């Protein structure tokens, strides 16, 4: 379920609507019966088209602009941007009718009585575990985040409460650019520790490395392009086997490295300053290892002088992940351990 936890904070137009109208008004105004010959004929629902048209009119100028850009991108033959647009709107328009009871309860409990925020929300026999959402999005971004409520009582006590590690469902957090690994420069690995000089990754700090040395550190595992989830109660991090939509699953490299930030805005650019703060980086990542004062493992392409060694030893995610384009809900793809 996605939505704001405390609708009293930074209220939007729908929040104000919920506050200024009675529940009976909502029932009279937006609840409809499913027409024949559709499944659920005569059932009382909050129609999906009402929700969709409400959402779109809230930001009509942005939607019009997006479709104008689509037109220009079609003319320019920019297939990536067109695909991006279509994928977004396919998902955006995938609304469904909600049972009237569910909709009206949500209006009442979440938007009028603020039960999630004040901790009085109940699920069947028990009070729901109130969890404080750790917003990992940027400060100032609206607090609309994926959250799963884990009832204290009931049948799903073992369920876990995950927060998507980045704001956007379309682009989970914690990814950088594995394409760098494809550019292992001949000769870099040839700096032989036995000829008296230490290899550059032992001699230099991350900040002292040249751009070429820095990029050559990436082993090409592509683990950083997997979505990750964070347990919002314990902070525990879990990998999923769902990869960024731009990742070339076979090559384990970014499908559009030059435009990755435009196509996947939350793709994180790693640099010597932020590397030690990116706690979600995989434990095998060369940048993380060096930032922690460790050496490169013996399978690393710089050590083996073979870009494929990361795949041969099974460190990379090649053959072990699915694109977010086809994966469905992330929480169905949680792995027991780092891949
Ligand atoms: S855009 Fe996606 S595939 Fe490319 S580097 Fe970023 S996370 Fe990886
Ligand atoms: S996890 Fe580290 S080593 Fe692996 S692809 Fe990402 S940046 Fe490169």
Q: What's this, in brief?
A:
Helix content is 32%, strand content 11%. By secondary structure, it is an alpha+beta fold.
Question: How is the topology of this model organized?
Answer:
Layout: E1 2-3, H1 13-20, H2 23-30, E2 32-33, E3 44-46, H3 48-58, H4 60-76, H5 79-92, E4 98-99, H6 100-112, H7 115-118, E5 122-123, E6 126-127, E7 145-146, E8 162-164, H8 200-203, H9 211-216, E9 226-231, E10 237-243, E11 247-248, E12 253-254, H10 260-263, H11 286-291, H12 301-304, H13 309-312, E13 322-323, H14 324-327
Parallel strand pairs: 10-13
Antiparallel strand pairs: 1-7, 2-3, 3-4, 5-6, 8-9, 9-10, 11-12
Helix pairs in contact: 4-5
The protein binds iron/sulfur cluster (SF4) (2 copies).
Count the beta strands: 13
The helix count comes to 14
Q: Taking all residues together, what is the mean pLDDT?
A: 76
Query: Which ligands occur here?
Result: iron/sulfur cluster
Query: Radius of gyration, Cα only, in angstroms?
Result: 24 Å
Low-confidence stretches: 125-194
Largest sheet: 4 strands, mixed
Element order: H for helix, E for strand: EHHEEHHHEHHEEEEHHEEEEHHHHEH
Structural category: alpha+beta
User: How far apart are the first and last residues' alpha carbons, in Å?
Assistant: 27 Å
Record the strand order, biggest sheet. Answer: 8-9-10-13
């Amino acid at each position: 379920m996605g939505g704001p936890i405390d609708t009293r904070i930074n209220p939007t137009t729908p929040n104000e609507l919920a506050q200024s109208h009675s529940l009976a008004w909502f029932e009279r105004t937006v609840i409809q019966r499913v027409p024949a010959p559709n499944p659920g004929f005569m059932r009382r629902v909050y129609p999906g088209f009402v929700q969709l048209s409400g959402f779109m009119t809230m930001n009509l100028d942005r939607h019009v602009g997006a479709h104008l850009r689509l037109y220009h991108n079609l003319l320019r033959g920019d297939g990536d941007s067109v695909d991006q647009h279509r994928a977004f709107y396919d998902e955006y328009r995938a609304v469904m009718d909600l049972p009237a009871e569910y909709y009206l309860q949500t209006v009442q409990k979440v938007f009028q009585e603020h039960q999630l925020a004040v901790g009085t929300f109940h699920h069947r026999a028990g009070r729901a575990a109130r969890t404080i959402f750790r917003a990992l999005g940027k400060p100032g971004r609206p607090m609309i985040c994926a959250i799963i409520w884990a009832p204290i009582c009931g049948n799903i006590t073992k369920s876990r409460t995950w927060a998507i590690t980045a704001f956007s469902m379309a682009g989970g957090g914690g990814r950088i650019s594995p394409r760098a690994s494809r550019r292992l420069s001949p000769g870099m690995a040839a700096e032989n520790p036995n000829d008296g000089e230490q290899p550059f990754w032992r001699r230099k700090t991350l900040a002292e490395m040249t751009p070429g040395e820095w990029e050559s550190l990436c082993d090409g595992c592509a683990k950083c392009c997997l979505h990750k989830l964070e347990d919002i109660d314990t902070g525990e991090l879990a990998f999923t086997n769902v990869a960024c939509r731009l990742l070339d699953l076979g090559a384990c490299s970014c499908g559009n490295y030059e435009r990755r930030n435009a196509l996947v805005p939350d793709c994180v650019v790693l640099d010597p300053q932020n590397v030690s703060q990116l706690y979600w980086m995989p434990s095998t990542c060369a940048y993380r290892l060096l930032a922690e004062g460790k050496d490169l493992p013996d399978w690393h392409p710089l050590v083996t002088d073979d870009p494929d060694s990361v795949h041969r030893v099974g460190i990379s995610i090649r053959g072990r992940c699915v694109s977010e384009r086809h994966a469905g809900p992330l929480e169905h793809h949680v792995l027991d351990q780092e891949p």
